[in-house]
DNA sequence: CCAATTAAAGATATTATAAGTCTATTATAT
DNA sequence: ATATAATAGACTTATAATATCTTTAATTGG
C-alpha cells in the first residue's frame, strides 16, 4: 500500500518543470537532478517513462532536455502513477473465487475511490 | 500501491471463521490452513497479529484455536489492514518540504479517502 | 503427572521488487 | 568535429514480503 519513489520523483520533476516556465523551455535532466537530489541516470530513466506516455517530450543533444506538452494542465496525478508504475491493483486476491466475492468487491470499491481521487488531481492543482 | 498477502489471508481467514458459526467456536489454524491453502505456521504468524490487535482471541493447547470476539461485526477492513501492515502511508515524500506542499496534500487527500472507505467496510459487510 | 494438541516466538531462509549504477549508443546544436 | 544530452540495456544493491523451521509455552483430558 505505497507508491513508488519513482512516482514521487516524477511528480516533483514535473512540478519543478512547471515552475520553470511551463512548456516553453527545455530542461536538461542535469537541472532536475540537482533540484531533486537524485542521480541523473536514474531520474532520466524515470522521466523516459513519462516521455513514452507522452506527457513530456525530450530532445537529445546539445540544448536538449525535457519539455512539458502543451496540455500539461490536464494531466492527472493518476496518469503519472500509471505511466511510472503501470496499472496497479491495490489488492491481489490470492484465491480469486470470482467477481461476486465480497472481499474483492470491497477492495475494488476502495480502489476505485482512490483512483478517481487521483484522476481528479491535475498537475495544475499541484502548482497553483 | 498494494496491500500485503498477509492482509488478504487475514481477511479470508476471518470470513471463513464468521461462516463457521461466528464467535461461538474455536477454530484451530490447521482448519484455516486447509481452507485457504496457506501453511499453518505462516497463517498462525499472521493471525497472531489479529490476536494482538484484539479482534480475535486464541487459546493454546488441546481443543484450542482462534475465536472471534463478540464485537466482530463492527471490525472494519481498515482495522485488519492496520493490524497486519501497521499504519501505512500511501505516499512517502522523499523530500518533505512541509505540510503546505501541494503534492503531499493531494496524496494525503487520496489516502484519507481510501482509508475512510475501508473504515466503512465492516467484516459483517463481507459476509452478508 | 503424562501425552497429545495447539498457539507463540524467534531465527533464518527465500523470493520478489524497487532502487540505483554503469556503460555504450544515438541524436542534436554549434 | 566536438560537446552535450537522452536512451537502452545489463547489471548491482537494497529492502521488504513471504515463508519455513525449530523451540517454547499453554491447555486438555486421561
Ligand atoms: S475473497 Fe471471496 S472470492 Fe476471493 S477468495 Fe476469498 S472468498 Fe473467494
Ligand atoms: S512535495 Fe512539495 S514539499 Fe514535498 S518535496 Fe516536493 S515540493 Fe517539497
From TrEMBL, chains A, B:
GO terms for molecular function: DNA-binding transcription factor activity. Signal peptide: none annotated. It holds the Pfam family Rrf2. GO terms for cellular component: cytosol. PANTHER family: RRF2 FAMILY PROTEIN, WINGED HELIX-TURN-HELIX TRANSCRIPTIONAL REGULATOR, RRF2 FAMILY. This is Transcriptional regulator, BadM/Rrf2 family. It comes from Marinococcus luteus.
Amino acid at each position: 500500500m505505497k507508491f513508488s519513489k519513482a512516482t514521487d520523483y516524477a511528480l516533483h520533476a514535473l512540478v519543478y518543470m512547471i515552475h520553470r516556465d511551463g512548456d516553453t523551455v527545455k530542461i536538461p535532466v542535469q537541472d532536475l537532478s540537482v533540484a531533486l537530489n537524485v542521480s541523473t541516470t536514474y531520474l532520466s530513466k524515470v522521466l523516459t517513462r513519462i516521455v513514452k506516455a507522452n506527457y513530456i517530450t525530450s530532445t537529445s543533444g546539445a540544448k536538449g532536455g525535457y519539455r512539458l506538452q502543451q496540455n500539461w494542465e490536464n494531466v492527472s496525478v493518476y496518469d503519472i502513477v500509471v505511466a511510472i508504475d503501470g496499472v496497479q491493483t491495490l489488492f491481489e486476491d490470492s484465491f480469486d473465487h470470482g467477481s461476486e466475492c465480497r472481499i474483492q468487491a470491497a477492495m475494488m470499491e476502495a480502489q476505485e475511490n482512490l483512483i478517481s481521487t487521483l484522476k481528479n488531481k491535475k498537475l495544475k492543482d499541484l502548482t497553483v
